[in-house]
């Protein structure tokens, strides 16, 4: 409606508007920016941008370790100095060494326990010479270390904090060698997990596409004294047979045999320089493992080592090549199945380039 000598009003109902965001809607991000703008010192982040970027983008760091580092840089760790200032009580000092004041920098660098850890580490670092705040120390490290070294640094800092909490709440004290071993073990586990099951790898691989070569793999296994197994794979260029390979080995389980067959096919085709291939297997678990659809812990323990090795080879090769793995029914894997049975029964090891006449289809 139009008021006399006044502006035109909207017919829509009134609604709440959050003025700190452009679209008028509330969000955590817009609220955070509003808090920064109203901070007493300035409207800029409380720590430098390069430190923020390092905390959130360093590889092989646990999410909770990133949050710990963020809080340490903001002097927000619940150490004795923070408790004393908030509760207006007398400081109890460091629970490990008895120092007058326990700050985040003291726990992570200045405490004699922490100094021994850093001096024993491969950094051989004298932390008593570092600045008195975590933020200044991080700024020093960022300027002098590469990203891989910073990952190791964060792992040690995180372990030092865990050791401090364990001492405070459980009364347990760790030796420097134990702290370093735990930090190194965590870093190695993260590196392995990142290489094996990286989301980036799965996204880059994408769904199976039509490729030039088709490689059919299979294995034949029987329960016997020596656990004999026959392995085979058959390679096709569209509808033309390129060649086949079969051999006999020892395997602990049917899955172990299927895994060995695919592993040998991967290595043989990679050696031939084939970069455009779809591997077909009638073992669903094997396909799920290669495509990251199930966990390694689901496999037979007898085949665990082979699974880890095969997965590393597959991820390394399939990223640069157009390699995919699909699951097929056993009814469509007849030739590879017959070759694998022949290899198990006859105990042979051979390669052929024409259709195998000794196989009765």
UniProtKB/TrEMBL annotation:
Keywords associated with the record: Nucleotidyltransferase, RNA-directed DNA polymerase, Transferase
Domain RNase H type-1: 217-343
Highest taxon of the lineage: Eukaryota
MF terms (GO), sorted A to Z: nucleic acid binding; RNA-directed DNA polymerase activity; RNA-DNA hybrid ribonuclease activity
Residues annotated as domain Reverse transcriptase zinc-binding: 26-118
Entry-linked SUPFAM superfamilies: Ribonuclease H-like
One Pfam family in the UniProt entry: zf-RVT
Transmembrane segments: none
Name of the molecule in the record: Non-LTR retroelement reverse transcriptase-like protein
Origin species: Rhynchospora pubera
Lineage summary: Eukaryota, Viridiplantae, Streptophyta, Embryophyta, Tracheophyta
